[in-house]
Specification:
- With about 375 residues, this protein is an alpha/beta fold.
- The chain has 2 domains: about 5-30 and about 265-370, Alpha-Beta Complex (Aspartate Aminotransferase, domain 1); about 45-260, Type I PLP-dependent aspartate aminotransferase-like (Major domain) (Aspartate Aminotransferase, domain 2, 3-Layer(aba) Sandwich), CATH 3.40.640.10.
- It has 13 helices and 14 strands.
- It has helices spanning about 5-10, 15, 55-65, 80-90, 110-115, 135-140, 165-175, 230-245, 250-260, 265-285, 310, 315-325, 355-370; strands at about 25, 75-80, 100-105, 120-125, 145-150, 180-185, 205-210, 225-230, 290, 300, 305, 330, 330-335, 345.
- The strands form 4 sheets. It has a 7-stranded mixed sheet with strand order 2-8-7-6-5-3-4, sandwiched between helices. Strands 10-14-13 form a 3-stranded antiparallel sheet, with no helix packed on it. Strands 1-12 form a two-stranded parallel sheet.
- α4 (about 80-90) packs parallel to α5 (about 110-115), α10 packs parallel to α13 (about 355-370) and α12 crosses α13.
- The longest helix is centred in the C-terminal third of the chain and has 24 residues, at about 265-285.
- The protein starts with 6 loop residues before the first helix and ends with a helix.
């Protein structure tokens, strides 16, 4: 495999040092929890090897959300969604196989298949069509060599949401083509249009992936999952996990299980806080003249871009230099997602409200400094 480090990781705030950033608008997750706020007692936890599939209680809770369509034994806990994505790609793709991926996208969904030597067939989403993932665009790229189609719902980095009708159409066409469909649904509960059922419940060839990192503000426990009713694929995924790490962390999985038992306690507060922050971002957007966006309908990210008249006049590198070095504010520049740096991801779920407001104001300041007359 030909691994390459990704800009989104090289320039990540945890690599730069959180203490060096005043306004962190790079994060694509909700605010990190402190352990003391979880109210957990782990004193009797046995630090041992655990069930190779993952914590039985947590898998049961996830299965119950599918109304039993996906059994606990069809749920595999992983070290974050990132490991789930790696396991799926490395299990299903060989050099020369084809994978259809939407772009912009979380970088791992693109780079891991590349490292494996698979051929990427890209569906480029565009601003003008509202970053919609058109089923017809996917259908046009399907060939007998297509082994996997990869989509995200809600979408990262734009915050757009696929309609249930479009999702069903993609499930139907991939089923007829005989390939697997990966649905990264990490933001599933952060859908402003209403939470969709787990995609894996709709057909056996569909794989759902999610984690505790984004919606639940627990990236440090490194717990994610995949679920699918496809027996042969699941067996391969399970074997891959055992060969990578045998099993997960007893500590991480117990924290995840106890948190998820209280999900209905934590989630309303998370979503209420997110709504307030989104209002801040929307108010800022409606009172500025430099950016245009497709209004997010899910997740905790937005992907605005400079208006054409601004992009033609701005010193782009100077803008980011002023923003990062002078104003100590960071966003996710477009090159993290193989897009122009005239677009940028703004994560509004992680910073506090005051930090978010300062960061948005600093975006406008950095533009004024670098806008050519």
């Amino acid at each position: 495999m030909n691994y390459k480090r990704m800009p989104i990781e090289i320039e990540a705030p945890e690599q730069l040092g959180y203490h060096t950033i005043d306004c962190n608008l790079t994060e694509s997750s909700y605010t990190d929890f402190r352990f003391r706020d979880l109210g957990l007692d782990l004193n009797e936890l046995l630090i041992s090897y655990v069930d190779h599939r993952g914590h039985p209680g947590l898998r049961m809770l996830l299965s119950e959300e599918t109304r039993g369509i996906i059994s606990p034994d069809q749920v595999l806990l992983t070290s974050g969604a990132a490991q789930a994505l790696f396991i799926i790609s490395s299990s299903l793709l060989n050099p020369g196989d084809e994978i259809i991926v939407v772009r912009p996208n979380y970088a791992t969904n693109l780079e891991t298949p590349r490292a494996l030597g698979a051929r990427l067939r890209i569906v480029d989403l565009d601003f003008e069509s509202g970053y919609r993932t058109h089923p017809e665009a996917i259908a046009a790229l399907l060939t007998p060599k297509t082994k996997l189609v990869s989509i995200t719902v809600p979408h990262n980095p734009t915050g757009t949401v696929m309609t249930e009708r479009d999702l069903d159409a993609i499930i139907e066409l991939t089923g007829k083509a005989g390939c697997m469909l990966l649905v990264d649904e990490t933001y599933r509960e952060m859908n402003f249009e209403g939470v969709l059922p787990h995609a894996a419940t709709r057909a056996p060839h569909v794989i759902s992936v999610a984690s505790f990192s984004k919606t639940f503000g627990l990236p440090g426990i490194r717990v994610g999952w995949l679920m699918t009713g496809h027996a042969a694929a699941f067996e391969s995924f399970f074997a891959a996990k055992e060969q990578i790490q045998i099993c997960g962390s007893a500590l991480d999985e117990e924290i995840a299980y106890q948190f998820y038992k209280k999900k209905n306690y934590f989630l309303p507060a998370i979503l209420s806080n997110l709504k307030r922050k989104f209002t801040i971002v929307k108010d800022w957007y409606e009172n500025q003249n430099h950016f245009e966006w497709v209004e997010p309908r899910g997740g905790c990210v937005a992907f605005p871009r400079f208006k054409k008249a601004v992009s033609e006049r701005i010193d782009l590198e100077g803008f980011y230099r002023t923003l990062n070095q002078d104003l100590n504010t960071h966003v996710g520049p477009g090159h993290w997602f193989e897009q122009s740096k005239t677009s940028m991801r703004i994560g509004y779920g992680w910073p506090g409200e005051d930090e978010l407001k300062r960061g948005l104001e600093n975006l406008s300041k950095a533009i004024e400094v670098n806008l050519k007359s």
